[in-house]
Amino acid sequence: MVLKPHHFMDIIKLYGGGIQVFVPDTDYGHDFYRAANEIIGSRQTQIKVTCGADDICRPCRFLGSDRKCTDCISHIKGIHSKNSYNEMLDRRIVDILGLCEDTVYTAGELCRMMGSYPGLVADVWREEAEACRETAGKRERLFEAGVKKYLNQDNEVEC
After folding, report:
1. Spatial distance between the Cα atoms of 102 and 127, rounded to a whole number of angstroms
2. Three-class DSSP labels, the chain
3. Could you say which of 18, 108, 125, 148 would form a disulfide bridge with 43 (CB–CB 3.0 to 4.6 Å)?
């Protein structure tokens, strides 16, 4: 599957928050649930990293004909384009972890790499951390819990 790194981190964060099975989002119509269930089901899931539109975005009602998100955000001062914000997040993750776009990693590899970087969430979502420390702290705690839970699953054997 083709996936934005921040989408992967969101999946792991939500898994850390207790979501075991993801359900479709009728407001957006995207495939977050499908990707999340596949990733949670197997650490061997093959993921090609991208900073552009991914398999989650493909069916979303906000994906424009230019393959850019047309949705807007208002929770961060000075940032209104969800597409620009998400690209910024993904570029940060790629740069911090030394990931290569269009390279395939297993979900387990990505999770280990992300989990081994202390403060990754704060470094990536720094605008949100400045706006609301409580929300940022919760995101960090849930992501860390998700990494531990995901890497310690008993439902499959890693080679």
Report:
1. 27
2. CEECHHHHHHHHHHHHCCCCCCCCCCCCCCCHHHHHHHHHHCCCCEEEECCCCCCCCCCCCCECCCCCECCEEEEECCEEEHHHHHHHHHHHHHHHHCCCCCCEEEHHHHHHHHHCCCCHHHHHCHHHHHHCHHHHHHHHHHHHHHHHHHHCCCCCCCC
3. 108
pTM of the entire predicted model: 0.92
What is the rounded CA–CA span in Å between residue 115 and residue 95?
Answer: 15
Q: Contact at 8 Å (CB) between 43 and 111?
A: yes
Segment 99-141, tens digit of pLDDT: 999 999 999 999 999 999 999 999 999 987 666 677 778 999 9
Q: Which of 47, 51, 54 is nearest to 88 (CA)?
A: 51
User: Residue 92 and residue 35: Cα distance in Å, rounded?
Assistant: 22
Residue 158 pLDDT: 44
Alpha-carbon distance 141 to 147, whole Å?
Answer: 10
Taking the C-alpha atoms of residue 102 and residue 40, their distance in angstroms, rounded to an integer, is 21
Structure tokens at 62: 């906000």
